[in-house]
Amino acid sequence: xxxxxxxxxxxxxxxxxxxxxxxxxxxxxxxxxxxxxxxxxxxxxxxxxxxxxxxxxxxxxxxxxxxxxxxxxxxxxxxxxxxxxxxxxxxxxxxxxxxxxxxxxxxxxxxxxxxxxxxxxxxxxxxxxxxxxxxxxxxxxxxxxxxxxxxxxxxxxxxxxxxxxxxxxxxxxxxxxxxxxxxxxxxxxxxxxxxxxxxxxxxxxxxxxxxxxxxxxxxxxxxxxxxxxxxxxxxxxxxxxxxxxxxxxxxxxxxxxxxxxxxxxxxxxxxxxxxxxxxxxxxxxxxxxxxxxxxxxxxxxxxxxxxxxxxxxxxxxxxxxxxxxxxxxxxxxxxxxxxxxxxxxxxxxxxxxxxxxxxxxxxxxxxxxxxxxxxxxxxxxxxxxxxxxxxxxxxxxxxxxxxxxxxxxxxxxxxxxxxxxxxxxxxxxxxxxxxxxxxxxxxxxxxxxxxxxxxxxxxxxxxxxxxxxxxxxxxxxxxxxxxxxxxxxxxxxxxxxxxxxxxxxxxxxxxxxxxxxxxxxxxxxxxxxxxxxxxxxxx
Length: 539
Known about the structure:
Elements lengths: L3 E6 L13 E9 L5 E4 H4 L3 E4 L7 H7 L7 E6 L20 E11 L6 E6 L13 E10 L4 E4 H4 L3 E4 L7 H6 L8 E6 L20 E11 L6 E6 L13 E10 L4 E4 H4 L3 E4 L7 H6 L8 E6 L19 E11 L6 E6 L13 E10 L4 E4 H4 L3 E4 L7 H6 L8 E6 L20 E11 L8 E3 L7 H5 L6 E2 L1 H13 L3 E3 L5 H12 L7 E2 L18
Antiparallel strand pairs: 1-5, 2-3, 2-4, 2-6, 5-6, 7-11, 8-9, 8-10, 8-12, 11-12, 13-17, 14-15, 14-16, 14-18, 17-18, 19-23, 20-21, 20-22, 20-24, 23-24, 25-27, 26-28
Helix pairs in contact: 10-11
């Protein structure tokens, strides 16, 4: 005669219980006391959806549902006076029938409900939150209120990408995403009238279903965003900042806004080398690399419309904000020449180095960021060259001009006057600016340009006869070499300093041996000032 309620299963967590006026979705089995089934929502494949306490149910069920939790299961015995009474339902429920219902509550909401947001993880740093018209990328698991999964971006291995607050989402999600930080995790519970309403989505979501989204925000930007620059380290001394047209070498770590690494120059052990402001890199990086100093470290945050856009590239998903932590190693401009800074110059500086002089000097060679490449000091010996003879890179030939013995200077050489794009494998990186700290220790004056040997006095009028010691009218290389050696030893002549004696002599002999037969005759033999339009290094 009385309503009987047996709570067969009560979930551990019950944040909310049914109250009169709530809307519920539940499954049930309806049977008579003898076990004969008269109705089942399971057989119809859909829940029974109804307001509680508004007379839409038999009185016993209206009472039995009050206080239920989602996922709670109740066994309910309803007497006739709280069911269909003495009339019953013709063909279905006989008069004065006691009814048994096995009820499982699936869903519960109220028309006064709002979107519920529960944040269960929030990053310590939250420089920006989602606002209306922002574009977001997020992962989610979508479930019903009873925990049944209906959709997941994780399963598709692709974020859900959308604008917020402009009607691209269901209204409840538009509201629930506002104020989120990148990296934040929250549960958004949405009543059906702010979701898919009475009709559902026609697929997996039934009508009148409350939806629960477990969301993690991965990315956030606005179409009006420009790049953002965060200076992390700026050298105290910054004599020059990068400009459009400069060529930069820099290291970087590239991550997504949630910290996921997608690329790193460090892992390749090689800088990224490019022109700036010329379209060789994405627009945001072109802009972000302007105004940097050598040695500077900065973070460049690039929205997708200045990055890889909606399509993305490789490991970079579409519409992704990119974060580059860069370290500028060096930069130069193709119009740069050698830069010379004199640190010390002796007071009696009268003899200056020039092309053809033989120089001995010490140096420390480094990159623009201070990385040491080489040092003659560590070898314990000087570096010796003939200036202007191509024995060093062109920039060094230029940087050693007009030096005094004892002078110290720093020579900065751009790559097009150094080792170029290829560098020296294992020693000098490609496109590297080189810095040489130099001290000139010794200078031996060279010969006039084009000469490998000069006389210190008058030239003998019988020069050929003196060289032709056996007077056979022909001079062999051995005779020629012996004669030149004697002139040098006695101080009558001087060879160009810094070159191998045998190579110089052979070169001089070959220039005189005009028919190439290995012998020089009196007719072939001529002094340099006797040669018209000759460019060979001759006597």
